[in-house]
Amino acid sequence: MEAAELRVGFVGAGRMAGGLARGLLRAGKVPASSILASAPSDKNLDTWRESGCRTTHCNLEVLQESTLVFLATKPHILPAVLQEIRPAVGPHHIVVSLAAGVTLQTLQRLLPAGTKVLRLMPNLPCVVQAGAMVFARGSGAGDGEAALLKSLLSSCGLCEEVPESYINIHTGLSGSGVAYVYLFAEALAEGAVKMGMPGGLASRIAAQTLLGAAKMMLETGEHPAKLRGDVCTPGGTTIHALHQLEKGALRATVMNAVEAATNRACDMAED
To answer: What pLDDT is recorded for position 2?
Structure first.
């Protein structure tokens, strides 16, 4: 199926769903007239209408009007939504769940047998088309569905197919990891403020520093340890600063944070 022929639906119209839709629109992957979003109230739908997308309060209408359907509801609501839409799901549908902690096994159990279902885990920067996403496919989804999803979502950032067991790790690394980076950026800027730089300027420089460092990692393919070593000179400012970070156990603390978030994601999947 060509992307231009797709009719894309979103059951749930929150921030993450809106970010994915904007990525599709900005990249010209799907025309706005081919996107339909549902939500129980108009609270989140106005911005969709402003983009030219169609909206509804009826989840079943999304299934009736779409071939690729993103399930973007809160996890605790999803089982009831699946029960509601199940009669309308057919063999022509590709169903993609964004709900954290809801496994492919659960999705396949609650949808008709053989449904082409995939599980996607995005992160918040998808809303500015700089996300990191991973997805896993259910038993009914083939190479064609996986390739289509990856092609479409490349407009929203990095998108990789992984075994489902990696999805909770991705949550700890990248889904929650965005918050770790914000905390580090805040600390960088506050350090500069302590030394006399205005806060606004410090925050902008901190953000650009993170952006530049990330771009170098992606474009050079170098291990971060190599890039870090390239910044250090014998007896210089950087090695003195890194010594302080090592004394504060930054590396171990961040590894512990990824582990804690991953374990919590696993616990949520079992609840």
So the answer is: 54
74 C-beta neighbours (distance < 10 Å), count: 11
Series of mean pLDDT values for 10-residue runs along the chain (271 residues): 76 93 89 95 91 96 96 93 95 95 93 96 91 96 96 93 96 96 98 98 98 97 97 97 97 98 88 69
- Answer yes or no: are the C-beta atoms of 12 and 75 closer than 8 Å: no
- Cα–Cα distance between 81 and 202 in angstroms, integer? 45
- The pTM assigned to this predicted structure is 0.90
pLDDT at 77: 93
Q: Which two tokens stand for residue 71?
A: 């399930």
SS3 (DSSP) at 17: helix
With b meaning 16 or more CB within 10 Å and e meaning fewer, what string describes 108-127?
Answer: bebbbeebbbbbbbbbbbbb
Residue 26 has a pLDDT of 87
Sheet architecture: strand order including 8-11: 54-56, 35-38, 8-11, 68-71, 94-97, 116-121, 131-137, 157-161
Instruction: Using DSSP, state whether 141 is helix, strand or coil.
Output: coil
| Sequence-distant contacts of 85-88: CB under 8 A, at least 24 apart | 85/11, 85/59, 85/60, 86/110, 86/111, 86/112, 88/60, 88/63, 88/64
- Which alpha helices (H) appear in the chain, and where do they start and end? 15-26, 46-50, 59-65, 78-85, 104-110, 143-153, 165-170, 177-194, 199-220, 224-231, 237-247, 250-270
Question: CA dist 43 to 83, 102, 187, Å?
Answer: 24, 25, 35
DSSP 29-60: SS-GGGEEEE-SSSTTTHHHHHTT-EEES-HH
Which two three-digit tokens encode residue 164?
A: 């489902």
